[in-house]
Amino acid sequence: MRQLLVEAPAKLNLGLEITGIRSDGFHELKSIFSTVSLSDSLTVSVDPGVSGIKLQCSGVASPDNKTNLVWMAAEAFLKAAGISENTAVTVSLHKNIPSPGGLGGGSSDAAAVLLALQKLTETRIDLASLGESLGSDVPFFLLQTETAFVTGRGEILEPVKLPDFHCVLVHSGENIPTPLAYKLWDDNAGDLTEACRISNYTARKFGAWHEGKPFPVKLDNQFLPLLRSRYRGIDLAAEELSRLTVNWGLSGSGPVLYALFRSGEEAKDAEEYLAGKFPWVLRCQSR
Ligand code: C5P
């Protein structure tokens, strides 16, 4: 048996604009994805000579069956590599990243499994297309870069360098499945004003983050006005975060929101202020 212990980081969307809808129903977007120190951990083992997939989960509730992206990633890898009949895969997943959260937890777990299986089986397959078929955020996590300007459905990636930040994440208590959030956008996109569109990122021109200045990336997220008017928890979290700083936003299609700070002390104060007001509040930082 061969075994690897791997870490699967969460990401924040530092701004998110939906730029169009594709013929397959997926949406084109523009966003900056930035990994943070919050992560899931996975132990991935392969046993040659036998077959089957086993998944054990601990931590934040997560299904230990075929509906988990971890399982799907293992199955897709074994099939693509042509080794399903003679390789068994066991994954122990310890989940810290809430799901759904808008933090890419499931996609990050899937990418971690694909990367681990490639190493363990020494099989070279095209992970990028496999990743894309599993989920729109998987290609970003396969890249193993801290920060990227992301376009297309999520598969066009340009690594960028941003200033380091400390952050506080807040779960608004709402349960918002991603497809529902996109459907809301489809049904209401006409209501969005130009003002909440993100201007083009000038990806290589991010300046330093000076005292008292806003974070050098616009953190507007087009899902926010839609979700804020429909989900009380999102509205409350947005209100509380905006009291603390101008540097706050919604990650993905929620339900987690975040606030960015220059120092760990500011983040700690914010965490103390928010603790108890929401079901889950966590301080972490950029990688
Ligand atoms: O790819 P992923 O599994 O994250 O997508 C979940 C759902 O979110 C999709 O079925 C689709 O409804 C929506 N989605 C989308 N466009 C994207 C990403 C997700 O429409 N770029």
Descriptive account of the structure:
The protein starts with a strand and ends with a strand. The protein is 30% helix and 31% strand. It folds into 2 domains: 2-159, 2-Layer Sandwich (Ribosomal Protein S5, domain 2), CATH 3.30.230; 166-285, GHMP kinase, C-terminal domain (Alpha-Beta Plaits, 2-Layer Sandwich), CATH 3.30.70. A hairpin with a 4-residue loop joins strand 5 (147-151) and strand 6 (156-159). It contains 8 helices and 10 strands. The chain is globular, with a radius of gyration of 19 Å. Helix 1 runs parallel beside helix 2. The strands form 2 sheets. Strands 1, 2, 3, 4, 5 and 6 form a 6-stranded mixed β-sheet that branches. A 4-stranded antiparallel β-sheet has the order 8-9-7-10, covered by helices on one side. By secondary structure, the chain is of the alpha+beta class. Cytidine-5'-monophosphate (C5P) binds at residues 26-27, 29, 135-137, 153-154, 178-179, 182.
Which tags fit this structure?
287 residues; 2 domains; six-stranded mixed beta sheet; 8 helices; 10 strands; globular
Structure summarized in a few sentences:
The protein folds into 2 domains: 158 residues, Ribosomal Protein S5, domain 2 (2-Layer Sandwich); 120 residues, Alpha-Beta Plaits.
CATH fold-type name of the largest domain: Ribosomal Protein S5, domain 2
Helix content range: 25-40%
What is the CATH architecture assignment of the largest domain? 2-Layer Sandwich
Main beta sheet, described?
Answer: 6 strands, mixed
Domains (count):
2
Report the sheet-strand fraction. 25-35%
The overall average pLDDT, rounded, is 92
SSE order in H/E notation? EEEHEHHHEEEHHHEEHE
Q: Helical region count? A: 8
Structural class by SSE content: alpha+beta
CATH class of the largest domain: Alpha Beta
User: Could you list the spans in which at least 5 consecutive residues all have pLDDT below 50?
Assistant: 193-197
What overall geometry do the principal axes of the alpha carbons give?
globular
